[in-house]
Amino acid sequence: MKTSVPDNFEDTEIAFHYKSNIAVRKAYMIFSILNHPWISAMGTGVVTFALKLRLPVESIIRRTVFDLFCGGESVEETKEAVERLGKHQVHTILDYSVEGEDSERGFDHVMNETLRTIEKALTSPFIPFSVFKVTGLGQASLLEKVQLKAQLTGDEMQAYQRVRGRVETICNKAHNLKIPVLIDAEESWIQDPIDQLADEMMARFNLDQTIVFNTYQLYRSAGLQNLKDAYQLARKGNYTLGAKVVRGAYMEKERERAMAKAYPSPIHPDKDATDNAFNDALKFCISHLEKIAVMCGSHNEYSNRFLASLMNDVGLRTSDQRIWFAQLYGMSDNISFNLANQGYNVAKYLPYGPVRAVMPYLLRRAAENTSVAGQSSRELVLIKKELKRRQGKSGKSSGKQ
Fold it and tell me: What does pTM read for this prediction?
C-alpha cells in the first residue's frame, strides 16, 4: 500500500471498534477522574496507602484502571488483548511491567519472564517485538555508580557483570528467534551505561537484521546528538541502528533532581524545543534508512502525521518494515487504529504482571494523564464522541424495528 497521510485521527468508530460498550463507558469514567488532578491525586494516594497496609484492593484495581492499561497478570492472560488488537492490524509489544525488584533472584525472574515474551512472540503474528528495562535486571544505584565511573567493589563488579549477562542473554535469544527487542530509556543519571550496553548488543546482533533497538529521549537536550552519534557507530561497525524515538517520561523528576543537586537541567527548556528535536530525529532517521530502523513512540497526533508525511515525501510504502508507530495500550486509540487502518505498522505496548507489582506503572500512567496538558481531555472528547455515535446508531436501529 502506498503511503497515505492521515488528514486527522478523528474517526472514533475505527478507533474504538475493538471495545465493547461497557469497555468504552469504563474508559470514560476513568479518564473523567484523571481529568481532575485533585481527584486523581486523592485516588492514587488512597490506593498507595491501601496497598501499604495490605488491604484487599486488588480486585477493585483489576476491574478498573488495570483493565484499561494492562493486558493481564500473566503472559497467558494477554492472549485475549493481543488477538483483539490483531483483528484490526494493531500489533502488540508484550511488556512485563513489574518494577522495584531488588535481589538477584528478582532480576533473574524479570530476565526469564522477558525470555518468555520472546518465545510467546513466535506463537503469534501480532507480536513483532519484545521489550525490557535494564533496571529490571539490576540495581539503579549500581548503574549510577557505573555512570559516575566510581570505583566498584568486587561484589559490585560481579553484580554488574551479571547485569551485562542478563542483557546479553535476552538479546541473544531475540537474535536466535529473530524477534526484535526494545531497550527502554531511563533517567539521565543511569542512561549512559544503558546506552553503552545497547550499542554493544547492536554491534553483535544487528549485522543481518535489526534485532536490538535502543530508546532515545528527545526531551533531553543531548537526545538528538546521542541518536546521531549512535548512527555513526553503526556506520563504522557496519550494523543497523535500531532507534525508538520518544519525547521522554521523567521530566519532572529530571528537573527536580537537577535543581536539588545544582547542575544544569538535561531537559529542553520548553515544549517547542522538544517538539523540534523530536521532528528532527524523525527526519534524520528517514534520511538514513539504509542503516536505521525506527519506531516512533508518541501520543502526539502531529508527530505521527509528520512521520507519515516524511514517508510519503520519499515514496515509502506504509508497510515498510523499517518504520513502526507505537502507543501505550489504553491510550491514543484514535492514533493507533486509524494509522493501522491505512496500512501503517502499528504496535501497542501491552503491560502485564500481578496487580500489586505493576502499581508503579499504573500510578505513572495516572500521573502522566494528569500532568500532560490536554491528554485526559483529548481522550475524554474522543470517547464521548464515540458514545454519542453509538447511542445514535442504537436509536436508529430501534426506530427501524
Answer: 0.91
